[in-house]
Amino acid sequence: WALLEQVRLHPERPELHLRLGSLQLRRGDRDSTDAAFRKYVAKSTDKVRALHAVATRYRRANDYDAALAAYRRIREVAPGDPRFLQYTADIYRSRQAEGDRERAAKLYDALLGGAGADDVDLGKLGHQLYLGQYYAQAAAAYERLLGGATLRGLYALELAVSHLKLGRVERAREVFDAWLEGEGGEARSHLE
Asked: What's the rounded Cα separation, in Å, for the pair 125 and 86?
């Protein structure tokens, strides 16, 4: 009840509407949840961030359709924002319904093929893709991150393994050899 009182006293504070929507979502009151989240987005100055927060809460509640609807609103609010592609692909990757893997792969391909990839943490994205066995997309993310430099640590090894999984043995060998020449020197001594 204290939260309801706070919302009544300070209706201009968006974070209170987000908290109220989250509470209503846990209670299963869908109408109240949707109303509170709509107010949160309307009162927020960063609409993309607000919609992502709403979608994240729906996603955690396994309401993937509501999460996807929030992410589609990002495209309406900020048509050129690359986060729409990543967030939507992440939902498909999580949901894993029939056809979702292909949808996610296409969205990741579009993200990695566009200028928007510069606004994404390619290392983190590559790692998530690798763990999800999206090897072609993981390799693309890591290669874009590489940009002529030598990748270090786990990313280098995941790039090499991704290339191996895709049958690109020579490229995998190049990446692994470059890693061995760099920080992998200690590993090389154990191999010999």
From this structure: 9
